[in-house]
Here is the input.
Amino acid sequence: MNASQEPDRAALFALRNRLLGPLRNRFLTTDQLCEAGRLMCGRPEGLSLYGIPAPEMEARGLRILGRTAVECTKDPHPATVAGAIAEIEATTPEADGEAMVVDLFCGSGNFGHHLGRRLRRPVYASELDPIVHEAGRRNLDRVGSAVDLRLADYRDLLDALPARSERDVYIVEPSWGPAFTPDGLDLTRTSPPVPEIIENIRRSRDCVPCLVVIETSDRVVHGSLEFSFGNAIHLRTLVPEPFPPHRTGSHFHLYRLGE
Ligand SMILES: C[S@@+](CC[C@H](N)C(=O)[O-])C[C@H]1O[C@@H](n2cnc3c(N)ncnc32)[C@H](O)[C@@H]1O
Here is the structure.
């Protein structure tokens, strides 16, 4: 990194601390959303959810919490993942039953929203935090989304949704918190830990296979990705172009959970 990038990097971390601290449960103003877009994604419009860029969010009735601006899966990543799933399915035999998308840690709901639309599937989602749930519900209504979002622990959603098809897709995006350090991301330390989530998905499906997608940082430590997925089959890892200021970016891993 050259010296001219240092101020932006310092500003990025200062912003993250504010969004996850004092602004955590506050709705961001247009100025704050644009600043978040510029520092996290290189330009104000780079921060986009439900297809709506930061400068237009407030005017179009979206209300984005500070924590959600940091934690959300930003456009265009869900569309990239949907494209990969469609490609995978094009090369595998048809499956019985109407497949669903299950967004277990919904947050903004942006991931499930796009996946459901692109794959033309019903989406069921859970969010445990009442403030995040309320904001997510409101925003999804605002953009005319059909996501069925419940204020619930992800395990209750799993209990309520037995397997429908071998093409069911589960989005696994728990909060990283202290699992994410400068060394990388340890998936055994997320909240809840990923190995536990995968085991609960498996159990809820009573041996019917499915597809799981998980987002990580570009560095996962302690072999925790392989450990979390055990004998599941790794299908693909997608590495979208990182947002300009970071030099690091999200990876999306697709796994088939078997019997
Ligand atoms: C990393 S964020 C998800 C981001 C999401 N993919 C998006 O695009 O906004 C994780 C979310 O999971 C929620 N959460 C944490 N524990 C949960 C649980 N046990 N069940 C359901 N939701 C939970 C948190 O409140 C947080 O909103």
